[in-house]
Amino acid sequence: MKSQGNVLKKTSTRLAAALLGALVSFIAGPHAALAASPQHHGQAPGFYRLKVGDLEVTALYDGTGVFDAHWLNGTKATMDGVVKGLHEDPHKLDVVDAGFLVNTGKQLILVDAGAGTWWGGGALGRLEGSLRSAGYTPEEVDIVLVTHLHSDHAGGLATQDGKRVFPNADVYVAKAESDFWLSPEIAAKAPKDAQPFFQSAQAIAAPYIKAGKWHTFTGSEPILDGMQLVPLPGHTPGHTGYEFSSKGQKILFWGDIVHAQRVQFQHPEVTAIFDIDQAAAAATRHQSLLKLTHEDVLIAMPHSSIFPNLGRLRKEGSGYSWVPVVFTDQWDGK
Ligand SMILES: [Zn+2]
């Protein structure tokens, strides 16, 4: 009995110690007693899907770049405000680059292909990985619609050694766009700073042209059921939006109507130095923003500061505000 009593006493002492330990770790957190964990700097793979009618739309993250205030043209007062704003918030001009997949149930369509290895010194070019994370392969893509041939939208189409990343896809781009960037004569006359844009466009297009998979359109000829071409000239000569409709719902892939949303929604007159025709780019932006506030259209914008680069427009004061799609794990938003 005596020894049993000792065992009981010892057991209850151990039990009390264990309970106390559990209580301490409960208060301090479950890993308080472990060595410090290394910090992990990467994020989860970047895709986000939602439903537009019967369409499955997946935004594909390509990377984030920093837009330079000197790339914007506005009045002195506006630009002074932008520079001041950057002191308060250094990330004010950060820009996510994104492309978008549309699965119609019959075809897999990519709208803009990200930068691949052609832009941004490695900050961009993750679209192919995002597409794979979303459960697709490049071989499955049937069609690529390109809003324009700047390499942050078309670079993901081809590798530096001239291979097609989407070997089974037919690529569509406006004829005015293709003619401009692929013209050796126009390239020869272009300023030195603009030369890389021509060189990359030509190198990216070459393997698709060779394979007979580079197609151009001149107007509103039908390419796909349920998709309308929306000419949006100015940023580049053949800059084109693509508007998909399904069951009364619409989504517009509008290319580079906006580069710096936290400046240009309030100041649509501010242009980017990359706009080939500055006046036309500003006019197209004014018209598009005004029109879209009156329509029930979801907007997919390749350059937003808020991934998944999807949202709607509202009128706000003399400018506009962006109402972003918020994250939900319900893919149809319900
Ligand atoms: Zn762009």
How does this structure look, described?
By secondary structure, this protein is α+β, with helices and mostly antiparallel strands. 30% of the residues lie in helices and 25% in strands. The protein contains nine helices and 16 strands. The protein has helices at 2-28, 76-88, 127-133, 151-154, 175-181, 184-189, 195-210, 261-264, 278-293, and strands at residues 47-52, 55-66, 72-73, 94-103, 108-111, 143-145, 170-174, 214-217, 227-231, 240-246, 249-253, 271-272, 297-300, 303-304, 310-316, 319-324. Strands 1, 2, 4, 5, 6, 7, 8 and 14 form an eight-stranded mixed beta sheet that branches. Strands 9-10-11-13-15-16 form a six-stranded mixed beta sheet. Strands 3-12 form a two-stranded antiparallel sheet. A hairpin with a 2-residue loop joins strand 10 (240-246) and strand 11 (249-253). Mean pLDDT is 90; it is low at 1-8. Zinc ion (ZN) binds next to helix 4.
Task: Give the percentage of residues in beta strands.
Answer: 25-35%
**Ligands present:** zinc ion
Structure annotation, total helices: 9
The rough form would be described as globular
Total strands: the figure is 16
Which class do the helix and strand fractions yield? alpha+beta
Q: What is the element string, with H for helices and E for strands?
A: HEEEHEEHEHEHHHEEEEHEHEEEE
Alpha carbon gap, first and last residue: 67 Å
Percent in helix:
25-40%
**How is the main sheet built?**
8 strands, mixed
Features:
334 residues, 6-stranded mixed β-sheet, 9 helices, 16 strands, globular, binds zinc ion
SSE topology:
Blueprint: H1 2-28, E1 47-52, E2 55-66, E3 72-73, H2 76-88, E4 94-103, E5 108-111, H3 127-133, E6 143-145, H4 151-154, E7 170-174, H5 175-181, H6 184-189, H7 195-210, E8 214-217, E9 227-231, E10 240-246, E11 249-253, H8 261-264, E12 271-272, H9 278-293, E13 297-300, E14 303-304, E15 310-316, E16 319-324
Parallel strand pairs: 5-6, 6-7, 7-8, 11-13
Antiparallel strand pairs: 1-2, 2-4, 3-12, 4-5, 4-14, 9-10, 10-11, 13-15, 15-16
The site of zinc ion has 6 residues, from helix 4.
